[in-house]
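Key result, reporting period 2: structure in, sequence out.
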């Protein structure tokens, strides 16, 4: 396959550079991937820009949790979209739902104006919306470029039936980007089945902390997570996925 998108989701400079080395052709830049990703800092973006000219789409998500935001949170989201536009990011990754599970068209329209000529991806708020078919058509009407989705399941392989339906609905107007559990094996299974040409992955490995002294019994975050494990993108996992896409 010649024309494909292999997007790496990263939350550090080290992961970004590993993704570039492995052959990703786009980054979704986040912070805090361990909780599904939140908005990255300006300085993280700029540090990566010093090292690479790869296309960067910034996730705009002010907090962990649902996608129904307060007025204050919405203002933060708007300002962050404008900030990344000013910084020169090629795209933003956004999504806002109403309490009833529908896409918040009023707020999304404002964000589309704020985004200007940037590419816009509707993130996995899509995967928890009430009606994926209705939301898909609304995204088209908004002028959204891409929908990142696992087919409303925890993993893309489990959601493959809906993913195939959605790809058939693209009609050259929008791109379905498959995410959640994507690796070389998942691409090998899903690309021929769905016809998708855009994939999103972390290529994550767990590294041991360089700390030699390790204080026990003190946790800075979720008790289930070790303070001495670091998640990083592995260049080889990205390379394996790209090889599959090139061979299909």
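The corresponding designed sequence is given below.
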């Amino acid at each position: 396959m010649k024309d494909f998108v292999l997007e790496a989701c990263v939350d550090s400079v080290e992961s970004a550079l590993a993704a570039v080395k492995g052959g990703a052709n786009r980054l979704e830049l986040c912070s805090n991937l361990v909780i599904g990703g939140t908005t990255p800092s300006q300085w993280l973006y700029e540090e990566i820009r010093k090292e690479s000219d790869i296309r960067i789409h910034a996730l705009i998500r002010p907090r962990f949790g649902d996608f129904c935001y307060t007025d204050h949170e919405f203002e933060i989201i708007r300002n962050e979209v404008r900030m990344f536009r000013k910084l020169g990011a090629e795209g933003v990754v956004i999504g806002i739902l109403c309490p009833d599970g529908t896409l918040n068209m009023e707020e999304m329209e404002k964000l589309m104006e704020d985004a200007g000529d940037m590419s816009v991806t509707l993130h996995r708020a899509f995967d928890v919306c009430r009606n994926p078919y209705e939301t898909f058509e609304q995204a088209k009407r908004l002028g959204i470029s891409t929908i990142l989705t696992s087919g409303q399941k925890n993993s893309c392989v489990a959601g493959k039936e809906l993913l195939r339906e959605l790809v058939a609905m693209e009609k050259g107007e929008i791109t379905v980007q498959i995410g959640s559990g994507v690796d070389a094996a998942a691409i090998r299974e899903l690309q021929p089945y769905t016809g998708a040409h855009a994939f999103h992955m972390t290529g994550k490995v767990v590294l041991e902390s360089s700390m030699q002294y390790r204080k026990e019994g003190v946790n800075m975050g979720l008790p289930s997570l070790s303070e001495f494990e670091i998640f990083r993108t592995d260049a080889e996992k990205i390379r394996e996925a790209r090889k599959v896409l090139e061979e299909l």
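Residues 74 and 107 are 8 Å apart (CA to CA). The chain has a mean pLDDT of 96. This case is discussed further under Risks and Mitigation.
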